[in-house]
Specification:
57 residues, mainly alpha, extended
Length: 57
């Protein structure tokens, strides 16, 4: 059961999704349904200080 869920998630991975859409292996409706099912995690967002990030380079 876990393998099936992992494979479903992989199909909708951003890096794979466009190819699968082009090959008609998934539909735009499936992608839309998946995206709508994702929880809103905005409350967990952390702003990045661009100056701090450039210091690391």
């Amino acid at each position: 059961m876990k393998l099936r869920l992992a494979l479903e998630d992989k199909q909708l991975d951003l890096r794979v999704r466009d190819r699968l859409l082009a090959e008609k292996k998934i539909t735009k409706e499936e992608v839309k349904k998946y995206l709508e099912s994702l929880p809103d995690e905005a409350k967990n967002a952390v702003p990045l200080d661009q100056d701090e990030n450039t210091k690391l380079q």
